[in-house]
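Dig into what follows:

_____
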Amino acid sequence: MTDKADSKTAPQLPVSLQMGDASTQFVSSSYANLVFHTLGGGDETMACFERHAITREQLEDPTAKIEFDSLVDTIFELMETLHIKDGGLSIGTNIHVSSHGAIGMAVISATTVGQAIKDAAKYYKTAISFCDLEIYYDDNSVTIELIADYKNPEVTAIVVEAMMMTVQNALEFVSGQKLTCAKVIFGYPPPPHAEDYDTYFSGSIEFSGNKHKMILPKYVLDMRCINADENIHRLAEEQLQKKMQEVRDNNLTVQHVLSLMRRSPANMPALDDLARIFNVSSRTMIRHFQAEGTNYRELRDRIHRELATESLRNTNHSVESIALELGYQDTASFRRAFKRWCNSTPAAYRLQSRQQAN
């Protein structure tokens, strides 16, 4: 049973947390280099990259990581300067499945398209951190959903365009067939270049859906992959399992957990939610906390105490409004919690802190 604050409603996990963005997002230099060449590749393009703190040395270093936000800013500037409307589609068209390293090799060497899709869903985090991928099956179809909901809808559109093209390219490459049977639904209204989508996608297109997804008939899962190789697939999976453990180890720290909690104090993710975000079990989360000398409740209280005391010191918000901002529907429960944290009432803490400041 997870530990929750007194008299609080069970939190609904915000979209930003569902995406597992525990820190600054990065892309590999191979992706950034591909964008560089797709959007010109000359001196003018390089100058734009450098204006956004992406150097030629980074692009040429296969081990380098590029900040996702910097790359997006670069893409927007180049699209405006070069009058490119379909930047995401152009980028996605040029992303070959082999560009994804070990996960690309697993997909290419899979026995069937169904196995390739499962591999992509299982290991995509080893290559991509800026969006999520989920697979759903029913009696007649398989749905590949992309979760990429940024505050800026133009960023969302570029990411979804590029990634949906990447998915189509990968499945068409491994199957050796055009996916004319696919239905691709975009969760945003038709963009100004909507008519260009038919040029890029093999199947039917719809806009203004409730999600970004590709729907395929179930028989596609049984299609044989033209480059199937069990030995290569086994080696690729071994590499991917190691990479997945590295991803978990690098992401799962108390500081990352605190960062997630701090983003949504009124709807703070519960222990089970955090475990799902980091793709580990709840027991593993508990062990990580214990190894760092803490637990879920202490971390939750730390954030609430930090935000409450800051608000009491620096704002004139009422105690009732501060309680609501932190997710407490019962002010009395907030007062009891604050007393436990600071051995003082909120009002007394505010008075004392302001007297000390004067």
User: Anything to note?
Assistant: Residues 1-23 have pLDDT under 50 and may be disordered. The domain at 297-357 is CATH 1.10.10.60 (Arc Repressor Mutant, subunit A).
